[in-house]
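Chain X:
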Amino acid sequence: MHASQDQQLFEDFYADIIGSPLSHWLQTAPAQLARWQKEQRHGELDSWLRVVSKLPELSSTSNDLKHSVTFGSEAEASNSDRARMTGLLKQLMPWRKGPFQLYGMDIDTEWRSDWKWERLLPHISSLTDRNVLDVGCGSGYHMWRMLGEGAARVIGVDPTQLFLVQFLAIKHFAPKTNPIHLLPLGIQELPELKAFDTVFSMGVLYHRRSPIDHLFQLKSQLRPGGELVLETLVIDGDKDQVLVPGERYAQMPNVWFVPSSEALEHWLERCGMVNIRTVDINVTTVDEQRSTDWMDRLSLNNYLDRNDQSKTVEGHPAPKRSIIIANRPE
């Protein structure tokens, strides 16, 4: 039962990349995803997928991916539809990245991911007709915004299976022809495709035990001349400044390296990237990351020093994030 279920999860992806610059991925992806189905399925995955299957069948032309992630208008669904959607989608909590608007129902996520998108959008190359990879994509909020900017197709990879189901829940309301797909894989599991026009890695680097390997993995997905958009935690300092936290950073247990922007630029240079530039540095506020009705767990406000919000509870510099853009050489 699982095998046929999972084949259906990815058949649109297989069909979409036939004849595209990503078609050589078909040599490895089906076998790899079959192994995932056999060896790595989360115990709750089937129950989560049943939640998605119970969502009301609604369709609309009142969709907006350019300014938000919105499917349908309030007038196109009943109050009972919205109540049903709310009850079902709250079974897939916590919702981290968003927000999403579905037929007048708002999913108020922990992160205002739209703010990050607005910070980076003026600085990146146009996504029109580009093949785009979003590494560590979460539930896919930014993927929809990439599609809204005219991308030919958007592929996200993230091993967290709840995020896959959240993505499928949103995709349930989207036009079936949208060329957007999420695979439950990590970047280290991908072959060197060398085919994407733009690769995004946002909020991933500091979770990698070997950040240099991560940068090489990102580079290996880009076509010659392709663009990398890298967003990550940074600290103040010169190119030799790197924070290696203790057991936790802002209560996150898996933060390994937090470089300065200058250090990160230097790392990218050592990896053979060119046209490297920091385009934005922004302090994360408790308005951008916070607890909500859709993410009712502790959030940033709980992880900052109560007496000095420029520091985490561990005494490290509070979260500051940098956006760096670079290119693979032609």
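Chain Y:
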Amino acid sequence: MSREKSETSSRSRSRTASASGDLVSDIYDMVRKEITTGALRVGDRVTEVDLAERFGVSRTPVRDAVSRLEADGLLTNEPRRGLVVTVLSHQQVVELYFMREILEGASARLAAQSASDIELSMLEELSNKEAQSLGDIGALVEINRNFHRLMMLAAHNRYLLRSLSQLTLTMSLLPSLLDKGDRAQSAAEEHRAIVKALLARDREGAEEAARKHIRSSQQHRMLFSLDARAED
């Protein structure tokens, strides 16, 4: 084979591998989005055949995407049931919130120190928008997600961002409870308290406000879980 043909063949294989990798990432993102939005609920059974048919692809990229989803803890292979959307135990939820309080507290503290004025202005804008959207749960869920994501970025610490991103990925297995009780109102007030401390560049105040917010969220979830079990 000539050098020119060899290089052409190599570039072709590279493009094919790249396209395959993109397809795996696309399938991963689509399944992850379905889990995050609740289209796929915890405990739902998932099969490679079904995913391949729904997304109109072969099983090979689906298999690779499923392996990534399992590695990230979003899918679990259960005996006799097969592949299901991971169901977190009570202890796992407690551990998640424990770490979330520490990491989000650190995120708020660093954001008070390092966030740009534009980032703080965007957080304030999200908080204001949240207060005006209390009747729209869909909008609130999106605002809440963006608020926490922006605060993570505003901390300007790549290692904290990596840890929080992984934690947020696992948290996506838990359904939003903003439509339960008065959680939407209290969450909006807690976000406002965080923003107030951030705008004042009050590191200790921002950290405490963020920690209080996460503790409040955990208490609401545990209370809701107890109520749900009482109805069974």
